[in-house]
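Query structure, 154 tokens:
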């Protein structure tokens, strides 16, 4: 079962956040970066709570690795960014084989990756909205799940 500890107050709005949004906190010149940074500032200020599947750590690290290869960020800055993200204490949720089966089902039905389906099911399970900057994911999922595009973040 996924951990359900709450970081903040009970009335604090909560989102499941994906790796693409977190990468926008670090990588310069990203589309919707201002919206993503506003979400980060609200999280740091305690205005919102954020959670994600635990594999987000590797997804963000992989995005930074690609950015290093494209010379968008130095390896040193990428490592500093990962440490800073770890210090932020975004609530991470583990998965299990039964949940992976449900994720696979959603992925097949909506033509998404299992990773994307995991974000959606976590949002459903925690009764929160999933926030993403991925246009295709947003369009494929919004009629079935509570999804917010980062550009529409309040």
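Result returned for the query:
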């Amino acid at each position: 079962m996924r951990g359900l500890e709450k970081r903040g107050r009970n009335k604090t709005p909560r989102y499941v956040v994906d790796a693409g949004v977190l990468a926008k906190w670090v990588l310069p010149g990203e589309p919707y970066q201002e919206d993503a940074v506003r979400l980060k500032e609200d999280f740091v200020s305690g205005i919102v709570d954020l959670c994600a599947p635990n594999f987000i750590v590797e997804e963000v690290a992989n995005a930074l690795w690609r950015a290093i290869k494209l010379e968008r960020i130095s390896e040193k800055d990428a490592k500093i960014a990962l440490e800073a993200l770890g210090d932020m204490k975004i609530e991470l949720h583990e998965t299990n084989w039964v949940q992976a089966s449900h994720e696979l089902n959603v992925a097949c039905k909506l033509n998404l990756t299992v990773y994307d389906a995991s974000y959606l099911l976590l949002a459903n399970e925690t009764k929160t909205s999933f926030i993403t900057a991925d246009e295709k994911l947003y369009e494929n999922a919004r009629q079935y799940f509570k999804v917010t595009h980062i550009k529409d973040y309040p």
